[in-house]
Specification:
The protein is of the alpha/beta class. The chain contains five helices and seven strands. The protein has helices at 16-25, 27-36, 43-52, 87-103, 117-120, and strands spanning 2-4, 11-12, 56-59, 64-71, 76-84, 108-112, 129-132. The longest helix is centred in the last third of the chain and has 17 residues, at 87-103.
């Protein structure tokens, strides 16, 4: 699913063409997020995951966040593997992601990212994986 988080809203984009257009609009940010934080996918894999419902995507004017709910034997982890764009928008997307993750039953939140993000999130700069409770 793709969620539009612009103008302080949180709305699922249900129209497939509109969702794809938003994905293309933020394509450069997706590539940047993959190159700086999670070199495990190509943009086409991200779109396939969104389209299949495996990934959730949160968008803003110039920013994007992609996450997935991971089920483990003991807990559900909402894992963010792409965050890219303007810092103010990205921090807003992280808040929306946490609220949505809790609604899906997440016990923990994790993510990967480039150096510098850990400082913004108030975490140790040595961490590449962060968790929140």
């Amino acid at each position: 699913m793709i969620f539009d988080c612009r103008d302080n809203k949180f709305e699922e984009i249900k129209n497939a063409q509109q969702a794809f257009d938003e994905f293309i609009r933020l394509h450069d940010q997706i590539k940047r997020g993959l190159s700086e934080g999670s070199p495990t996918h190509d943009p086409v894999h991200i779109w396939q995951g969104i389209w299949s419902g495996d990934y959730d995507c949160f968008i803003h004017e110039e920013s994007i966040l992609v996450a997935e709910l991971q089920k483990t034997p003991k807990q559900m982890i909402y894992h963010t593997f792409i965050v890219a764009g303007r810092m103010d928008e990205s921090l807003e997307l992280l808040k929306k992601r946490k609220t949505y993750g809790l609604s899906r039953g997440a016990d923990l939140f994790s993510g990967v990212g480039r150096r510098g993000w850990t400082k913004m999130l108030g975490l140790s700069d040595k961490l590449t994986l962060y968790t929140e409770s």
